[in-house]
Amino acid sequence: MEKMPSGSTIGAGNTKKGQSREGQFPKVILWGCPKSFNNGKIGSMDFGFSILYENGPCLAVSKPSGVATQAPPGIDSLEARIKAFLHERDHPSHEVYLAVPHRLDRPASGAMVFATRRRAAQKLSKQFENRTVKKIYWAWVAGTPDPIEGTWRDSLRKVYGKPLAEVVPAEHPDAKPAVLHYRTVAAIDGNSLLEIELETGRTHQIRIQAASRGWPILGDFQYGSTTAFGPPHDDERLRAIALHARTLEFEDPASRHLVLVVAPLPEFWPCVPLAASPSNDIK
Question: What CA–CA distances, in Å, run from 194 to 23, 64, 65, 257, 267?
Fold first, then answer.
């Protein structure tokens, strides 16, 4: 039964070495909260996120669903929460610097990486631009994809002025190629759990590619789901969809170690037996 343990401590017992990139640097597999203060809390103050990895200017966290990655000043966001946490914990003499090299949709949850210094931010951003960051997502979808594993290739465009994406012909002037690879790892009650690796990173890519084939992500009413997911909220902005950034693999800009962080599943996700999968092999 899958539930990645939470509140685990990173240390000698929880750090594993794998093959190195080009034989130079080891892969360090890390998950959970590395230190007691790294649970997004300081005393009785809960900042609403969990830290998965922290090394110098590199910070990886688990984003909860219903929280925007970024927002205008004065509006709640993960960026604002992290800045408030770092300010309260470190008491810097200057304004907290936090770079956001990638995004995760508001209703989705899971692993994200940030930088607290400009040079580290440049190095992380370059990795995303060069598509060397490996991103694995888990998603519950309605129905059973056929075939049960494969590759989806589409041309997508972001709808101007709206938080929407759509599939368009390849010759459309705004079309951008979108590619992902998926495999079905579990099924229950007519729904399927997919493990997805993104090859490109387009707006709402997983959501629109799944929905356009008739398998919308549970809870994603914006793209055709008819099934609620997660805790109910009157404010639709706080509602979750069944999309979780399970793992994120990147090169630490300071140590140059290849780091793999695994974001524990939210408590409200179904707990089911899984077929063998790379991210399920991480213990």
Answer: 32, 20, 18, 29, 18
